[in-house]
Amino acid sequence: xxxxxxxxxxxxxxxxxxxxxxxxxxxxxxxxxxxxxxxxxxxxxxxxxxxxxxxxxxxxxxxxxxxxxxxxxxxxxxxxxxxxxxxxxxxxxxxxxxxxxxxxxxxxxxxxxxxxxxxxxxxxxxxxxxxxxxxxxxxxxxxxxxxxxxxxxxxxxxxxxxxxxxxxxxxxxxxxxxxxxxxxxxxxxxxxxxxxxxxxxxxxxxxxxxxxxxxxxxxxxxxxxxxxxxxxxxxxxxxxxxxxxxxxxxxxxxxxxxxxxxxxxxxxxxxxxxxxxxxxxxxxxxxxxxxxxxxxxxxxxxxxxxxxxxxxxxxxxxxxxxxxxxxxxxxxxxxxxxxxxxxxxxxxxxxxxxxxxxxxxxxxxxxxxxxxxxxxxxxxxxxxxxxxxxxxxxxxxxxxxxxxxxxxxxxxxxxxxx
Length: 418
Description:
Blueprint: H1 14-33, E1 37-38, E2 44-46, H2 47-53, H3 59-64, E3 67-69, E4 75-78, H4 83-92, E5 102-111, E6 123-132, H5 137-154, E7 159-165, H6 172-183, H7 192-200, H8 211-218, H9 229-244, E8 249-251, E9 263-271, E10 279-285, H10 289-292, E11 300-306, H11 307-316, E12 329-333, H12 339-351, E13 356-358, H13 365-371, E14 377-381, H14 383-388, E15 390-395, E16 401-405, H15 409-417
Helix pairs in contact: 1-5, 5-9
């Protein structure tokens, strides 16, 4: 039987992978410009990190995690998101010791057992950015600005920033009671999952994607009347900061994100070109995540953006991914006597930082020149060239040829490629 990839995962092949490199390089440069350093984290963690950090009543923990028992009898989970792992790594390695902060980012695969659909996979890739150990609203504004800046540099259009406040442990109980009182009047319209969450965590009902629950949630009281003075002022400062930077936004009272660790600011950046699953970026503040996994109080803010979706939007908008990497030079051997020298010349070109290819399958000269069609130059080597210590350099665009001394060839090609 022919082996195929499991449902919900896919191969990222050469026709697409170069686009990923372009997006990641743009994101990496923006991260560096904003003072963030790259880290590489494990793709699996102890399950408790996510159950305690992300939240027992979230869809992620209840329905979507890939969890297994390892050979030591420990419960292990493939990471469904990166923030909890980022905080764990910072605590374990004392990156925020003595009141210091840490600006970190990473890129890699995440895993959730969701229903596969356009732009959504069970193994998906995220750029994750976290500013750990920062409390002020100005940091929330900077994080939203950084996310928007990445999209600006990529050229994305038709985007919208959506923000909300989800309060804090001080004021959220007041809002919780208001939600319970409201949703108790609509129990007959809620799904079983939302009924189960009604007493445990009614905020999660606001995040339900089922139409009937969504219609009920649209009429739910908003959180703004329940916010404490600190959370209200923090939210006002975020709005003022976004306006100061000219970042357009709208407020969505149902935006609570799918993770329990959020406090105060929550935000998403939406694309008008993705239909229902339209978030290309999401994040917010999570001042108590560190506390929930046994660490010290560490106010923090961050975001994650899905690379699959970014590329999908860029393709739909006809945006450029730059130039696809290809060989600049193809080294062709006129006959078998020149194949060894052709391989030596290819090695020299590559060592000089020039992308080069040559035939390794004993193809005819005609087939080699056909293969050279995508390169800018073809270096032709035959008995006469080897004898005279020269190379015939052919411009593949106009067909013109010149004879260049092998001592001058690399400098000549570098100058022409500038």
